[in-house]
Fold this protein.
Amino acid sequence: MGIAQELFRTHGPQYLERFGQAMPAVHGKVIQAIARCRSHDNGATVYQCAACGEHHVTHRSCGNRHCPGCQQHKSYAWLARQLERQLPTHYFMLTFTVPEPLRAFVRSHQRLGYGALFEASAGAIKALAQDRLGADTPGFFGVLHTWGRQLSYHPHIHYVVPGGALSNADSRWHGSSTGFYLPVHALSPIFRAKFRDAMAAAGVLGDIPAEVWAIDWNVNCQAVGEAGATLRYLARYLFQVAIAEGCH
């Protein structure tokens, strides 16, 4: 039994009884899943040795993406899939960050906030690729991170983007230079405006501090060459929980 699982099994029920009503329901489910991981509560699989006939009983893992004991194999499988999908071109990593005054709102409206974060950032890339590259179909995928290096709540999305876009008008690939993809000073206001439109459509605009719409939203674009190194970097974090076994 790991330290995290021992803590959740020992103190989880009392914690949930005291704070369960004030925390997101998904957090309570994570605590319960980790506490039950590899226990009889999850059932068991019986293996029989082909040589001696001896039976071995293994309790099933929880498979929860926040469980520190269940994620390593998923990281390897994800990385292998992404490496196979690389295009023979240069790549960039774009990072879209939620400004600090907005984070409390996003944390209390996670489904709405994360969905809008993806839609607004992806929409900004598509809009500017059409304008600057003359092509309407850029290729990219994004990975959401919700915590920073100091383990504070810090939602942001990393996009891995090949340097160019496909045009449906002429069926050709419109490549960018190796050192520059899209201007971040133009991505930022588009990103902000699309997120604001989504909040207005959801009827929650009045719950967000007005200062959020008056500040620049942080967007970063970094040339990374071929995508392999960036994919390996993201794979380390994609299936890693903020507090893992061995953390102090």
In short: Residues 72-238 form one domain. The mean pLDDT is 87. The first strand starts at residue 44 and ends at 48.
